[in-house]
Amino acid sequence: MKHPKDYLIFPLDVPTIQEAGRYVALLKDHVGIFKVGLELFIKTGPDIVVEIRKTAADARIFLDLKLHDIPETVFRAMQGVASLGVTYATVHCGESKKMLEAAVRGAGGKVHLLGVTVLTSVAKEDIRSAGYDASLADDVGLLVQKKAGMAMQAGFAGVICSGHEAGEIKNTCGESFLAVTPGIRPAWDVPNDDDQARVMTPARAIRNGSDHLVIGRPIRDAKDPAMAARQVLGEIEETLQQH
Predict the structure, then answer these.
(1) How confident is the model at residue 124 (pLDDT cuts 50, 70, 90)?
(2) Which long-range contacts (C-beta less than 8 Å, at least 24 apart) are formed by 166-170?
(3) Is 66 in the active site?
(4) pLDDT tens digit string along 71-85?
(5) Given phi > 0 = left and psi -120 to 50 = alpha, else beta, which region is 66?
(6) Looking at 43, 66, 110, 124, which residue is catalytic?
């Protein structure tokens, strides 16, 4: 059975390498994967990867840059990502299978690629206003499935998706195809004014098939982040025992 810590991804959504290092030191015993997004990477560059390894040598690193460009540019960018030795990296599924295939070539088997399907902040109204067919706007899950299929065929390890879509992705793409789920809120911390449109508790996401859970604000904003992380792990462990 996978350890609860292996499910937990903590996003280092902070502006400085010093602050990121503080959270890594606080959470290294409770978090299996640290995620580096655009804000932090733009400010620090590859130095943040070195900082994480220095403090938490056993942690995996997820570089969440959501690449989306012409195939040759994505190919070269992914070669650079692969040279950093990170475990996961993201690419927008976008419109072009050639771009996804170029990312796979650039990764050279050194990075597990995750396709970004539909951001969990996106609602039906957003899909409709972006000009998608009404059938896809009315069924966001169908759009996610289409994009997940593209990623799988290109050779990706998995996709980023809401917990609402994880089960169907497992059914169509196979159990080994990863479903990484943001928009996770512990049962004890579900706010009313959240900018995530498709949120879910850890327990429900795992039952639906999610392999990894991205949990940021409930841990980061807690008075005691390590205690909050332990609470999340307890919730995950209880779910695994029942699963």
Answers:
(1) confident
(2) 166/205, 166/208, 166/209, 166/210, 167/208, 167/209, 168/141, 169/144, 169/145, 169/209, 170/209
(3) yes
(4) 999 999 999 999 999
(5) left
(6) 66
